[in-house]
Amino acid sequence: MTGTTLDDYTDRYARRVRGMTASEIRALFAVASRPEVVSLAGGAPYIAALPLDAVGEMLGRLGAEHGATTLQYGIGQGTLELRERICEVMALSGIDASCGASPDDVVVTVGGQQALDLVARLFLDPGDVVLAEGPTYVGALGVFQAAQAQVAHVPMDDQGLIPEALEVAIADLARAGRRVKFLYTIPTYQNPAGVTLSEERRERVLDICERAGLLVVEDDPYGQLGFETEAPRPLRARRREGVFYLSTFSKTFAPGLRVGWILAPHAVRDKLVIASEAQILCPSAYAQAAVTTYLATMPWREQLKTYREVYRERRDAMLDALDDMMPAGTTWTRPGGGLFVWATLPDGLDAKAMMPRAIAARVAYVPGTGFYADGSGSGNIRLNFSFPSPERIREGVRRLAGVMEQDIAMRRVFGQVDRPGVRRGRPGADTPGPDLA
Ligand code: PMP
């Protein structure tokens, strides 16, 4: 050991660690969680909508009466009982035996997040490219970055991912000699954009990927949280092969249990289990028993309805408040389900630069840049409506509108608004940006 000391870690980091930085959301948590701040920044479900006493009693019994199994190790793939229940849950969305879904091909994971990590471990080499919606889930960006893969964004409009843009992206990357492994997509009630891939586009996206030899990783935590109509059937309900279906109980039951799953093509299920065992040995037996017992003994379909009703009311509160108070030039999506609205700020406003003023005005949001791998998104913000009450949502939007009005006024005074040729805060202006309004 010459020249370095043992508290000098930087030079020792693996290459994949070098790009690791705290996400925008993590960095914001400390301030956004102060009680005086209306946080529209998080993504937490409204757990108080659960029958917490009954769930608590159930959890107590799992330890007291079934501790010999629930506190023991289990098998890497997850218990058969839970995998069977998961198939019942998926059948509600149209993924059933008729399209080859079977408990045998389900791998239980530690939330949807481990499911993403497993798929990345299985398929991504350093330098590989993942195609993903722009914007996309911040936690997926972290996983792909850790795998030293690059993300190429494909723009969306209010019908979701644009198939023509997907074709262009695939052709461009092929021309550049890049290896694209899969399309990562959240087709239903997308996080963060709140848009849903239309029925007609689902087939086209699948056809395009099939023709290009791309796998599809379908991330679907929100599909059962639709407010008005049923969501279009998932991609996995339309294709048996080539589609990995990922979901979680985090939004439909409780994220604290950390239970998710992958429905994998049969040929790769074993590899997923081996990769998962290397990572975690096995998912928590206690958490799996909790979810299994919840699904077997409690009215989970009713609970889904309750979540939908609570979130629909909050979505409406947010859309009404935005309609009433947002400054001219602001646009936003009108989600049919899920937890988020994605807003585009008037030209010239920078979501990140505005953040300290928003916090000072006691409101928090997530700047759009967190949801892109390429620095785009500074003209966007993500707003969460699942956790705050309708009154807090309205108050939060009121405070946010005030901050935006102030920023607009300041920029007018200093002559920085609408300078021709200058698209402030949009570093990704050369690539097609999302037009989600
Ligand atoms: N995928 C998406 C699109 C998500 O929004 C989330 C959670 N916000 C996850 C995966 C991870 O969920 P989990 O809590 O089950 O790990």
From TrEMBL:
- Gene3D superfamilies found in the cross-reference section: Aspartate Aminotransferase, domain 1, Type I PLP-dependent aspartate aminotransferase-like (Major domain)
Q: Which residues cross the membrane?
A: none
Q: Name one molecular function that GO assigns to this entry.
A: DNA binding
Q: What is the lineage of its organism?
A: Bacteria, Bacillati, Actinomycetota, Actinomycetes, Micromonosporales
Question: How is the quaternary structure described?
Answer: Homodimer.
Q: Name one GO biological process term.
A: alpha-amino acid metabolic process
The alphabetized UniProt keywords are: Aminotransferase, DNA-binding, Pyridoxal phosphate, Transferase
**Protein name (database record):** DNA-binding transcriptional regulator, MocR family, contains an aminotransferase domain
Kindly indicate whether the keyword Ubl conjugation belongs to this entry: no
Pfam families (alphabetical):
Aminotran_1_2
Q: Which cofactor does it need?
A: pyridoxal 5'-phosphate
Query: What family is this protein classified in?
Result: Belongs to the class-I pyridoxal-phosphate-dependent aminotransferase family.
Q: Which residues form the Aminotransferase class I/classII large domain?
A: 51-400
